[in-house]
Amino acid sequence: MWLKDKVAVVTGAASGIGRATAQRFAQEGACVVLADVDEGGLEQVVAAIHAAGGQACSKRCDVSQEAEVAALMAFAAATYGGLDTVFNNAGIEQPTTPSAEVTEALFDRIIGVNLKGTFFGCKHAVPHLRKRRGGTGTIVNNSSVSAFANVGGNVSYAASKGAVMSLTRVLALEYARENIRVNAVCPGVIDTGMNRRNLELASDPDAVQERWLDATPLGRMGTPEEVAQTVLYLASSQSSFTTGVGLLIDGGRVAT
Ligand code: NAD
Predict the structure, then answer these.
(1) How far is the CA of 177 from the centre of ligand 1 (A)?
(2) Radius of gyration of the chain (CA)
(3) Domain 7-248: CATH architecture, name and number where available
(4) What is the pTM of this model?
(5) Which of 140, 181, 219, 226 gives 20 to 30 Å between its CA and that of 239?
(6) Beta bridge partners of 233
(7) How many other CB atoms are there within 10 angstroms of residue 194's CB atom?
């Protein structure tokens, strides 16, 4: 078991990539604290983990609110006696909009969750991670292929994910000597609620889906479970000499 007796926090854990990762972490022996704004969704995932014999509990947390993120990390450490790994995953999409029409309110909302939420998750995890003897803490941030390749119409989302990559590198440098490793995953098009909502809003959903698949050499969407497996690798000691990287899980898109 790759996370036996480790304590993990997963944000955005009520659905999609966060849910799959919380379940994968629990299968690997972690005690998992699941956080999200969707409390009903959290209850369902915690019940599924318990039914499978895993250990988990949940706490409502809006990651764009610093005090709530600080309280989440303190709750995890108090509940399970410390903190070993955090997956800052919660994120929201920007409805496709030309950049010149993006309002300040929309830009602020996306940056508030995707970028500030990730920053708060890192900031408030570090004091708990460094308390672990031997310092083997890990942080994994959810960036995106959008940090590297885009089709347009998502300026605030792409900016937030590029910045998540940059802050990942800065934290990796700052805490390397304490053996706290900070990495990111950069998923391509993954089959989750986020992309289903994007398709529902499109004027021609079939054309949008075809464009996504054409841009992906492997010719399909990835699954949340495929991303979860990569997060598990970065969160565990299997990746013990890796810090400050963004691992693409994009079906080959950036290679094109
Ligand atoms: P999703 O919509 O299924 O899951 C996102 C979760 O985050 C939801 O449960 C939602 O309730 C939660 N959330 C939203 N705002 C929150 C907030 N303020 N505080 C706490 N929780 C909040 O989508 P997903 O695809 O699983 O997305 C997870 C992450 O993966 C996001 O950061 C997203 O940007 C990233 N990502 C997704 C894809 C993709 O193709 N699906 C690709 C690259 C990156």
Answers:
(1) 31
(2) 17
(3) 3-Layer(aba) Sandwich (3.40)
(4) 0.98
(5) 219
(6) none
(7) 17
